[in-house]
Amino acid sequence: MKSLAFTFSAALLSIFCLSFVSPTDPAGKEVVLTCNVNACDKIDSIYLYEFNGIVFKKASTAPTTDWTTYKFKVPATSPRFYYVGLDAANMKPIILGTENNLTLNGTCAQFQGAQLPDSDLNKDYEVVKAQLNNHKNEFSSLLQQMQSADRQGNVDAVNAIILKIADLDKRRLDYLDSLKKASPYLSKVAAINTYVSYQIHGSADMTELEYFATKYFQFVDWKDPDYNYLPWVFEQMKTYAQTLSGVGFLESVQKDFMDKMLVQIPANSRTYMLAMGGIINGLQAAKSPLLGNYAQRFLEKYQKTEPEAAAQVAQLMRMSASFIPGGEAPDFTMNDRDGNPVKLSDFRGKVMLVDFWASWCGPCRRENPHVVELYHHYHDKGFDVLGVSLDKTKEPWLAAIEKDGLVWNHVSDLKGWSNDAAKLYGVTSIPHTVLVDKDGKILARNLRGDQLTAKLQEIFGE
Hints:
Elements: H1 4-12, E1 30-38, E2 45-51, E3 56-63, E4 69-75, E5 80-87, E6 90-96, E7 101-107, E8 110-115, H2 120-151, H3 155-182, H4 184-192, H5 198-201, H6 208-215, H7 232-246, H8 251-262, H9 270-285, H10 291-302, H11 307-319, E9 333-335, E10 341-343, E11 351-357, H12 362-378, E12 383-389, H13 394-404, E13 409-411, H14 420-424, E14 432-436, E15 442-445, H15 449-460
Parallel strand pairs: 1-7, 11-12, 12-13
Antiparallel strand pairs: 1-4, 2-3, 2-5, 5-6, 7-8, 9-10, 11-14, 14-15
Helix pairs in contact: 1-2, 1-7, 2-3, 3-4, 7-9, 9-10, 10-11, 12-15
């Protein structure tokens, strides 16, 4: 199994750049943002957006008369995070709410590169963001070094690296403490981005996985209203859910950890909506069967108040049906060993195991005897298997079928990892299984070994 901490630190490197604002609340004042942008090619308006965890909603529109100057006027607020641009694919993160007059300079073709020369808040954030990223990159590097030394059996090197990790943990905590004194709001951005190592702060009564699941947000006060408009809530919840889905926890355990995290957040807060959006996004990226559960909960909670976001989530559920239990198993047609087309829907009325494998896949071949045993035991009761090979050449595929005694139906388009059925089902590693019921609905994904045996016993009664 991959080191959880390494998986976590690598995932952190992929998060996109976000910003924040100062905590003061100049009630009654107006914030003016003047955008001086070139090459707009007679674009009538640009837009100010807010992100709710699922979609970017237009908060304000700035028209123009000269195709270069666009001006927003919004009420001054407590910390509020916005994006300015033409659409969700071309926008600039920006702080608004506490500085009365700001200027943005850039081009319509690339809002992401626009500058805010007179905004101290944005400048300060860039400094903090750079420091947090440096900490994360250093942590990732040390974990990689430690894993390498451990594989080589170099105990002295491992111990030396652990001392470096301890020093990094201390610097991260010191930095968080310094921000609490210098800028309380900045410290909240740091808090949600600070994860200290299991190697130094873990205990014998929990595994590294359990430590991650329970301590990832240990410095965050979810009741603090400043998190309501902090997009890092979305990003870090996305990382949290995606990591839990990829490190070997049972789905029931993953759900338990995520639910325990969510219950700490006030259910009627905007922070909760950002967190739910992050979880949904992380589960979708991980192709987790749990997506359906959280997507449905989002729909039930926000259908009326956030109809646009709810529509997006509903569409995501339809697109992700191939890995959501209870969803319709996408049909496909592929040639068998003799070149005859076979459709998955041809097997309606049977409980089908769609088994993605290949002759060159060692774990697949080691699993085959177990599947053969289950096939013979349950076939007369309505169980069948459809093997989908990710081989590129026919001869080794056929030889493996013969050698392993795989007496069920087999198909392949001999495209390897570009296999059309594998792409349809989002298969990125093998062995991979999809269990389909008699009506063509997905029962479960990626069941193998004892888990597959238990599921068939549950279905067939023995």
